[in-house]
Amino acid sequence: MIIPTIEEYKDKMEGLPITDLVIATYLKKYKGLLLLTNDHSDFPTTVFCREFVFNVKDFGDKLYAIYTYKPNEQKLKEYVLDEDEIPF
Hints:
Order of helices and strands: HHEEEH
Oligomer: single chain
């Protein structure tokens, strides 16, 4: 279950904590989950969609974001059929 997540991260694995990798795996597995974090480097927008960004002054004026999993564009293209390939 974690191997596809590692493959999707590719060159962004250096310095990635294992906990963030596990969180990323669950975000991929359970569609519709949202992640609230102020750690933007471990959830790259090439893999995840940054839905909202906002500032929270009560927590030291930090910038937070809500992320969801975004399937790899290339994988989506593999499942798209040309008009000639439609069987009916």
